[in-house]
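It would be a great kindness if you could assist me with a short task in structural biology. Thank you for your consideration; the sequence and its tokens are set out here.
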Amino acid sequence: MKTTNQTLRVELLSRAQIELVDSLPHAQARYDAASRSSASSCLEGTRVELLRTIREWVHTNDVQKPRIFWLCGLAGTGKSTIAQTIAEELDTSHTLGATFFFSRNSAECSNALLVFSTIARQLALAIPEFGARIAEAIEANRDAGKLVMNAQLEKLIIEPLRSVTNPPDQTVIVIDALDECSDRKLAQDILILFAGKICTLPFPLTIFITSRSEMHIKSKFDTPILRPISRPFILHDIEQSIVGGDIELYLRQKMKEIGEASLIEKEWPSNEAIIILRDRARGLFIYAATAVKFVADEFVDNPKDQLNIILNRTVSSDQSSPFADIDKLYLQVLESSLPQGGQLNLTLIQRFQEIVGTIVLLMDPLPLAALEDFLGVASGTAHSALKFLHSLIVVPKSSTEPIHIIHPSFHDFLVEHGRCPDHRFALDAPLHHERLAVRCLEIMIFHLKRNICGLDDTTQLNREVENLAALRSRFIPAHLIYACSYWGLHLSKSRPSPTSDHLLMLLRQFVDSKLLYWLEVLSLQNIMDAALPAIGHAQVWYSISSDTDETSALLNDVQRFTVEFFEPIKEGAGQIYHSALCLSPPCTLTTQYKLEIMQGISFIKGGQHTWGPCLRAMPGHKGMINSISCSPDGKFLVSGSCDRTIRVWDAVSGSTLATLMGHTQYVRYAEFSPDGERIISASDDKTIRVWEPTTGANFHILSGHEASVYTAKFSPDGTLILSASIDKSVRVWNSETGQVLAILQGDYSILDASFDPLAQAVVVGDTGGRVALWNWQHDMTSSFIHCHANGVTKVHFNHDGTQIASCSYDRTATVITTSGNVLCTMHCPGTSAARFYDAVFSADQTHIWTSDHFMRCWNIGTGEAEVSFNTQGGAIKSLAFFPGHQQVALGMIDNSVRIWDIDLAISTNTIDEDDHKEGIQQLLLSQDSQYVISTSYDGTARIWNMENGSLIHILNHPIGSHVLCVCLDKDGSQIASGADKLICIWTASGTYVATLEGHTSSVLAVSFSPTQDHLASGAGGDDNTLRIWNLQDQTTLWICSHQGAVMCLLYSPDGSNVVTGSTDSVVRMWDPSTGTEAKLMHEHITWVTAIACSPDGRFLAAGSYDGMIIVWNFAGEIIKTCSGHTDRISYLVFTADSLGIISRSMDHTIHFWSISSSTVDNAIPHFNLQTTPASAIVDIQGWLRMYSPNGTSRRLCWIPPNFRPSSVGDCYDAITKSIIIGNQSGKVLIIRIMLEEDS
């Protein structure tokens, strides 16, 4: 980095700010980076007119000038040299903001995901005020540099720049060789993102871009978003005489310097020689530069002889290719590198193919020593082979800098068919990739082992390991990192052949013994994103090369294994063994690697028997998913959420590609256009937006509706947009211009609408329960063809437009013809609260898929459900089938997107009849830890054996009831359960005893008196009372009114008081013998959600919705106020000695409090874990944590999303050392935890 400008600017930032800025992920892609030490700028006197044009563009103050200057040209025409020159000049004049010089020679410098964070880092150092703003942004979000591209640009560049109060007069960003970006789509995204944002800035930020004139880049500059703000300049359109003159000037100057350095006579080289070289260059500066480097080779004593080698060859007869002469020059350089005048020497040619071929085809260049280690050759071998090739290949003197080719055209010369006529040098790329794949596998098989870095504590996450960087450097050499990163890619670029037997054998050996250790290295090196693509490449290659066998089964298993446990493995390499293997179902992988399985975590009940149909669970949204849509090619998903955002997902990896922000209220709908190039969204903010999918650029913001827009869909050909709103109107728009073409005004709010396959008619569903057809292109008439008993939420045509599926708030879905004939009506099973959210035709149009809490497939002919399975995430708001209908994406009410395999769902749909059919509402552990009771919306309470997980009893309540609460009496002989308005009494053996009736709304809490002959119950809704019951005759003794729902209650240890907590924020003490109110405590400001009494009867604790805990004595005096939780308190318990409190919260944490202290305690005297179930919890990231008496927690393992607790949480049994989880699918899981100290 230059000290003249950037260092002075950096000094204006504080050390803390500099550290924050430096923490951003970045590439060494500055114009003056050490890796670019060989880069040169334009020779004085050359490129005069072109540089003048660029300088005029830079310094023009006209606000209407194009913000982007695009310099494009053929390979070798000097684009990078021009960019280097411009960057140097801008830096000198203090107008350079940042540079990113792409290079296919470097993985980081070809990585589009590093572009915006790298530019932001440089801008922060160039503009001190911007640096301060970006430091604030990083402080607010330490992962800002890891966000998707559009969010990086917005959060790290655009928002900080907008907040700069004293912006510079001019700031230019230079991006060179955009065509060398490794991902063409992302290269396009960079252009679109910049185009959509830079014009919104209050000061002129301009961008100078160079690239080859490749179609994926050229096509974007021809789009409406880039064309008005860019100035293209075609380099190879410059008059040849001008370019030739510049090349001639360059050759004369450089040859003069060589002659002077070598003490050659001044007349050398001749004017004729210069003219020959100029003409052979044919406008390609790379020809002149390569010729100069060849003549000046430091390992050759006589530059004259070197020049004569070039001059004495015959002129290429093929003048049709612009690269004919540069190709001939490359060949001359290669031939001259061989001894004996280039005579054939098989050993030398093999060495060339091995070393130079590897350098050319490596995905990321390696330093000299690492290259020799990778190839398995003796030290010095590579250096010797490259001795006479320094005009083509950069061989740094530093041992840490990578070797790389000077110009991409040399790669093209060796690899492209027909470019290199000499078979000794031409590379058979697929064959060489096979050799590289072999070397990668050999290296991994030799080096990989469990706990490769020798970590003392493998339960630690990677970020928690002290000196991890030093350990990685010591134990994971560079050539092993390369092998782990790119073996799959080399495999995919090879071609199966008879010579592949060795590769096949190595792949089997690697899969059989090293797969998990490979994942370890990827985790430790923070390159887990390489895992799934590599496995995918291996699966495809192996399926071509071999029959299905155990290796293919292992590859399939490790693919599911990696998807299921990607997050914990990425966080910590040791989680492969502590979480993933322990919680995987029995399969080929767990059998093959059974010795690696940690014995501390095991399922007693609820584990998977095989890989489930849920291929991916994708969290990320902060609100429920309202819609999900699949791209036409099946590669991407788009979701719209109540968190006001739209997310674009990679359907293979499950990663978020973009978060589209702009709507100010709930996003009701989002879908891809038929060509996949746009996304449309509808929102409660009354607008429709059309987006570029990955960049978030807005093509249109359509306004006109006067209320929430519930849907916006493209016509099948993408030329029209259909929108429906609760303002009672449906609109048709031109998708290109945004013009309204037609409006239908109805009598009711419109909840959904869809085009027919020809976009000639529209089907509409409204809140009046009506399904109507609107012939908008013909007579503009509408007709009602069906009527539900309540609002119609979804309407869809089948593929040929002859049938319509609809679903309604009336709990039915129907299939009707366009003339209104009802083909079938489907009724949603379950409670009165259950309803269908979506209804979609099957691929063959003979069935309908519906979603409620289950996915169901109905036969249209019979109206019967043929398939039904629980997706284990609560209600399914939206369905989207992938092409082929083998997989389906689900938009869930639990804020997640899930992808399910339909065939696997059907084949594994063996519902455990023991489990609940609806979500778990409460878990209660018996005092002797012999059993646990679960309650559910399915109208049952179930009793489970804690030793083996078996079902002991089912307590059936009235059909359709919701069992919301349960309690045990003091000796565990009686059970009371609240089911809607009723309370049922049972024996512990499951025998029904009595039903207590009297409440007029749902019973939310029950508690036995210490004497076991009375019961207290609390209700909500329109009831809001505490009732005291006599269990002898099942009569109500007292009714005690509240101002809100009674959320929690219990008897004091001596039975003299009943304590209640209510949504009116008041804690009350009641005398159960008289039903009178003894005390009121008003100190809470939100709902009271949990209550506990100390065993000695001296203290009372209550927790509220806001996470506050207050402790009183029974005189009503406040003893302590405890602040620390950030969400609702779900459970409170005192320690056995009454000196401490353990609290559990919906913020997924457990806190320990001392009665005598005002803060969270680190050590509670005499605390005994055996006395409380609140010592383990699944935290918000899914980690199962064990809490110790000193207040610290220990991470045990990661729980997959499908197994995580519902809102009732989970509980821990210290006696059996088990955590019990109840989830939204109705499943109860018992996980046994055996720590090392327990064995």
